[in-house]
Amino acid sequence: MLCFYFSFFVFALVGHDHQVSALANLEEVFAWKELSFAWPSEEVHNAALKDGDYVPGNNLPLGLDRWKNKLFVTVPRWKNGVAASLGYVSLDEPINKTASIVPYPDWKANILPKAGGKPEDDNYIVSVFRVFVDVCDRLWVMDTGLADILGEPTVISPPAIVIYDLNTDKLIRRYTFKAEDLKQDSFFANIVVDVDKDKCDEAYAYVPDLGGYGIIAYSLKENDSWRFKHNFFHFDPLHGDFNVGGVNFQWTDGVFGLALGPADQNGFRTAYFHPLASLNEFSVNTAILRNKTAANDPHIYYAFKLEGLKGEKSQTSASAFDEESNSLFLTQLNKDGVACWNTKRHLTPENVALVASDPGRLIFTNDIKIDAERNLWILSDKMPQFIYRELDPNEVNYRIFRVKVADVIAGTACA
């Protein structure tokens, strides 16, 4: 049976330095006290509030990615009352900083079946943490299938990769993970896609399993998946302690962030990855991940490499790679910011540059993405407060920023 995995323990209030140390000129594009949604009508909105299908304070944005004038935003079903787990906000000018989330692909797909019921077809979304927009105008969604995660976890459907055509908003495929892909503590909170724009049908997706300590590889062409295991996927017991936004907590999340470098002459890439509870960064060539046979070959152990140490308090959730500068961007949860590392240099703490830091506005930088125009997008959401305490609805709790990559790395070791 699939079990939810998200490890958390006792929290304590700690002191916090409120001095703003923003190193980059970030543009605050969106800022919400609570998320709102683009309801079909006021009547539907009021009914959702009345029935508890929409509890404003329970809707926390977590993941993002951009496609043209749409900025996709995910809202995992941590608690009851999430209106829609996948949606977008418009980037058409003028931008409304408190824009309502438009459910994607539509409202129907985001509505949970009634108790005991099952979805009517494959075009549905249960609970999403992160998404990935590929170069072939497709949206890849990792649907956990799990609702009310922090309350009474309910498995609506097995974990699945859901793929949409962004030009038509039509479902391309829903691929449900096989039983052998899953462990008892499996939990899938991320997805990255390895594809060439001239070979769209030959895409591969890589999905870290933060609870079961593995990586699932999926071939679109073969419509098949396989699982890798490795010691590097496990958390570091010495670095699972976090102090973020005035909350102290301990997590045991394993392999989490994953980003792909540029393709080599054979079309393969370097996949950079790290456990969330760790200070190290690792890598493996995607020639390994694409090889189903290699998944069960013990000799591939040495194909996985330790890149180096990022530095103290450098625990990272998400990462993103900028090919032009050869730089890997890394969220810095314990530093209220984002750092970068030029992969042409050895990975040492001295070669990791903190490019954005703000203990007021960048509390828990949960996700980052780099779009086709080389904008770095950053989402911060105060998630520790959301999980362990309560957020103040009178304060801005969720923010999305953007900044040009060239600007944010200027004068740093990543330039």
From TrEMBL:
Entry keywords, A to Z: Secreted, Signal
GO cellular component: extracellular region
Subcellular location: Secreted
Signal peptide feature range: 1-22
Record Pfam families: MRJP
Key word Ligase present: no
Gene3D superfamilies to which the protein is assigned, alphabetical: TolB, C-terminal domain (2.120.10.30)
Domain of life (superkingdom): Eukaryota
InterPro entries membership: 6-blade_b-propeller_TolB-like, MRJP/yellow-related
Family, per entry: Belongs to the major royal jelly protein family.
Record PANTHER family: PROTEIN YELLOW-RELATED, RH54244P
Name the UniProt record assigns to this protein: Protein yellow
Organism: Hypothenemus hampei (Coffee berry borer)
